[in-house]
Amino acid sequence: MSVLDRLSSGTMYLICGVIVAFVAVVCVIFMVRAWRAGKAIGMDTARMRQAVTASATFSILPSVGILLGVIALSGSLGIPWPWLRLSVIGALHYETQVAQAAAEQLGGTLSGESMTANAFATIAFLMSICIMWGMILTTLFGKKYLARLSRGGENKAGSEKPSFGDKAMTAMFIGMVSAYLGSYIGAYISGAGRFTLKGDWLPLLTALVSALSMAGFTALSEKKNMRWLDGFSVAASMLLGMAAAVLASL
User: Which of 9, 50, 84, 159 is the Cys-Cys partner for 16 at CB 3.0 to 4.6 Å?
Assistant: First the structure.
């Protein structure tokens, strides 16, 4: 039996499946408790349903890309491990980059033909150890951070000055977007001599189409009083961005 066959064995499915099932049960428990808590404090049921619908649409579209990531990684790491990583805590761009970098440092490539037991153990260890700090820092400092956000959100009466929570969230979002766009722009500048539309331009084109789509939905929501678009604008913008990427790749 090859290493790839062992990575897709029943034992691996059992181990990873139990963890995924546990996380799924925890999610259902928290969802039920959140709904009951919302009802207990008198939240509008229609608004709660709108939040659930928006969250569902926002989750379904990214899951398509995640599924493609599982399929792409299954050729070198088997199906259970990528399924576990991308179902619980992993991110598509993170998992693929770390796995590829680890394989290159071991002197090979991320492929099923060159995969060994030692290589998989190293790749799996790095994929896990490098992403665990978010959980650790949240456990140690999350309570204090949330308390600071709550205090910062209590603006003085009549004050239009943004709170600390607003500033922190805005800064985090801008930093995240800048990091991604910066990497794409950097790839274009470093490879300007071999610049092609289907290569370096594709992520920038996707981001541009998504941003313009979001701006259009926001304008319709605010100026045309089409508030029902708020629950679908993010998901629809992502869909339009992916569609633009597909058309540009033809």
Answer: 84
Q: State which amino acid sits at residue 130.
A: C
Closest CA relative to residue 58, chosen from 214, 193, 212, 188: 214
With 0-12 / 13-18 / 19 or more C-beta atoms within 10 angstroms meaning exposed / middle / buried, residue 210 is buried
Domain boundaries, the chain: 3-133, 163-249
SS3 for 160-224 is CCCCHHHHHHHHHHHHHHHHHHHHHHHHHHHCHHHCCCCCCHHHHHHHHHHHHHHHHHHHHHHHC
Q: CA separation (Å) from 247 to 130, 181, 212, 243? A: 35, 21, 17, 6
Question: Is the distance from CB of 221 to CB of 230 less than 8 angstroms?
Answer: yes
One-letter amino acid at 179 equals A
The per-residue DSSP string of 7-46 comes to HTSHHHHHHHHHHHHHHHHHHHHHHHHHHHHHHHTT--HH
For residues 61 and 238, the answer to whether their CB atoms sit within 8 Å is yes
| Tokens matching residue 111 | 């492929």
Can you give the pTM of this predicted structure? 0.62
What is d(CA 77, CA 114) in angstroms, rounded to the nearest whole number?
A: 11
Give the integer Cα–Cα distance in Å for 122 and 103.
9
* Cα gap 171→158, rounded to integer Å: 24
Task: For residue range 74-127, list pLDDT tens digits in order.
Answer: 888 999 999 998 888 777 667 877 888 888 888 877 887 778 889 899 999 988
How many Cα atoms sit within 13 Å of 147 on the Cβ side?
4
Tokens of 248: 């540009």
